[in-house]
Model the fold of this input.
Amino acid sequence: MHIKRFKGRTAKEAIRYVKEELGDKALIIDTRKAPAGGYVEILAAVDQDVDGERAGTKRTQRETHLLKELRELKEFLLCMMKDGKRPVARMFTSLEEELVKEGLDRRLARNLIFKALTHMRENMENTGCLKKYIKNRLLGSVATRDPLHPRSRTLMAFVGPTGAGKTTTIAKLASLQALKNNKKIALISMDTYRVGATEQLTLYGKIIGVPVQRVDSLDELVRAVELHTDKDCIFLDTAGRSLADRDHLRRLGELSRTMPCMRLNLVMSVQSQNEFIYQTLDRYSRVGIDYLTFTKLDEGGVFGSIFNAALYCGKPLAYFATGQHIPDDIEKATLKRLSRMILNTTGGIDGTA
Ligand SMILES: Nc1nc2c(ncn2[C@@H]2O[C@H](COP(=O)(O)OP(=O)(O)O)[C@@H](O)[C@H]2O)c(=O)[nH]1
Ligand SMILES: [Mg+2]
Done:
């Protein structure tokens, strides 16, 4: 908001000055006559967004023109999309519904369609081309990364809602790293709330043949990690009682501060509702997550929530768990895999269906 005083010999003259300088959209906030008479003073304001140039942001004429064109284009597109009778509008609406059915957030779906409409140069009326553009745009905006670098040491905590599959995922990764890649592994459990939770990890450790240690405090954890300087990977299993467990989040925050080299991998089930996933991301983002892992892809359904989550927090996807079998049911998150999860069309980033 840009506010300015104007003086004129008459009210009419002062208003003319306001319009000349701030334009027709200016608001008159106050009008008063000078006590000694002789002139009228007007206090007027204009919204910067309405007219940024006058409000001092000094846009070039070309920029102002482009902005105007963009605004008109957006209005035009909105009208087209609302006019359900036009074939092109029907196509946009049905594509939006298809994306939403696949679990994508409606705002994200709409945004992608808008982007396609404003950036695609040709073949916009061809649904296949439109889908391909949207799919590539979606895949281009999420990142995937393997946190287990072959040459560097990994210290990773698995965090997330109870039942998401943290302990099972740790067992799968530990087993693959130990048996297939010959890595030295240690497992640590800070899973102190659920009776039997540490036992679950201990049992897996025994089967795989890797040591499992239980710790009850941060100090104990620091000492435990110091004990395992010879290990390639140390996986930390954690448990919180619920999303509302502030104590658990506080402890994780302390953990990140005390051990900055500890990476946090947030594990969530793809079967969770989008709203629950957003709440989980909000809570855990406060302690600083590094990676996302999704489980239970084998239980079917749609996978849009994976894209929603990755875009919501901007963190890379690390793994997808695809069943209860240890160690087989786990995969690295790749764009190729992601490409098969959304919009059943050929020509994703990897050119596959
Ligand atoms: N179908 C399916 N079940 C899984 C998967 N990952 C874990 N589970 C199951 O989910 C339940 C909870 O797993 P758990 O690892 O104990 O979860 P945590 O509480 O996060 O440690 C167990 O019954 C697991 O066997 C998966 O990818 N697919
Ligand atoms: Mg567990």
